[in-house]
UniProtKB/TrEMBL annotation, chains A, B:
Domain HTH-type transcriptional regulator MT1864/Rv1816-like C-terminal stretches: 82-179
Protein name: TetR/AcrR family transcriptional regulator
Top-level taxon of origin: Bacteria
Gene3D superfamilies: Homeodomain-like (1.10.10.60), Tetracycline Repressor, domain 2 (1.10.357.10)
InterPro entries in the cross-refs: Homeodomain-like_sf, MT1864/Rv1816-like_C, Tet_transcr_reg_TetR-rel_C_sf
One of the Pfam families matching this protein, by short name: TetR_C_33
Keyword Membrane attached: no
Keywords per UniProt: Transcription, Transcription regulation
Length: 190, 190
DNA sequence: GCATCAAGCTATTAGTCGTAGCCACCCCCG
DNA sequence: CGGGGGTGGCTACGACTAATAGCTTGATGC
């Protein structure tokens, strides 16, 4: 019996692909195993069950989303950075719905948890968007949460076909970006 | 063998309770049956399988959320209506996470679908929030989507423990409501 | 009072995750 | 170079799930 040469990372990558393809259905060990040309129980030599595998996919998703955000925002500030971040999130959620869905519900993290460091890196991108606006430091955390809520909500509703009406969704995204940009500029400490 | 006297609606209600209690875990027929004092297969006399039951829970959730929104916004306008809507959504999602999660992913609906009429009723509440602002009619649909994205995103991130930092979440909600209110007033057709 | 329909049940099938235990391959080390 | 150990596959199994088939009994209507 020839060895498939699996390694932890390759199992996670295959699981992420499967999760994206079958989203919103839950990830299944048997499908991941089949994708890797291996029988189900073999996976348990590399990952510690379905929960662990899902968690690994979530961590991968957080890291990839953070990379996408940083790349999109490189060299941009203010409205440009905001629009780039929104577009990056929408694109990532549409291309990798399973990975992104896994990232939600990672729950609170401990300080030294590998999840926490990736999550911090990714969430700091939202703070970077605000760097272009001179906000009251006390307001920054609220602004980050508002930003994250709006972009997360928009992307998830879009991918879930939650927008019933017929207007163009790109137009709506631009409108929301402009709305937030105007609000943030109006909130600058004068 | 005494009859449990089940009716479709009571099965849906029990399933909704179970879904809320075990959220974010998926709904299971066996748990619903146990809750009703009945064996699993008996449920199939009342609902058409797990997918159908989940869909019924989702419809119930949409209807209840719409009721909660209308009640909260009664007699309010402008910022008051906006704050009431935000609070109503947050409360509903926290009290009924399973119902609410089921509502996402109902997908696009046909015109005469019972889902569509409840969904329209509920979504019209977001339009009602905007009634207090004199917006350009062309912008209204974008504003509705922005509003829904922000409130949906905030509530889901809150219930998923997605807000890592330590600032008070109620404060952040108030800040976001104020932010949107100021933006909408600034966008009024002068 | 009887017949019919509805609503429960048990038994079964197929599919899931996960564990136990086996076996062969590969590498390292003496 | 040869053996031992660790590694990574496998099959077999147990417990759980949804769902169907078919039976039986209770309730209702004529």
């Amino acid at each position: 019996m020839p060895r498939a040469g699996l390694i932890g990372a390759s199992v996670t990558e295959a699981a992420a692909q499967v999760a994206d393809e079958i989203s919103p259905a839950p990830l299944r060990m048997s499908v991941v195993a089949e994708r890797l040309g291996v029988k189900g129980p073999s996976l348990y030599k590399h990952v510690d069950g379905l929960d662990d595998l899902t968690r690994r996919v979530a961590i991968l998703g957080v890291a990839e989303l953070g990379d996408a955000l940083r790349e999109a925002m490189q060299g941009r500030a203010g409205r440009d950075a905001l629009a780039a971040a929104a577009q990056a999130i929408r694109t990532y959620v549409k291309q990798h719905p399973g990975r992104y869905a896994a990232t939600i519900g990672l729950g609170p993290t401990e300080g030294d948890d590998p999840v926490a460091v990736e999550l911090d890196r990714t969430l700091s991108s939202f703070g970077a968007v605000l760097r272009g606006y001179r906000l009251d430091p006390d307001a920054e955390i609220h602004a980050i949460r508002m930003l994250r809520s709006a972009l997360h909500g928009f992307a998830t509703l879009e991918v879930a076909d939650g927008f019933q009406m017929s207007a163009d969704i790109d137009d709506s995204c631009r409108w929301m970006v402009d709305f937030i940009d105007r609000g943030l500029r109006a909130a600058e400490t004068s």
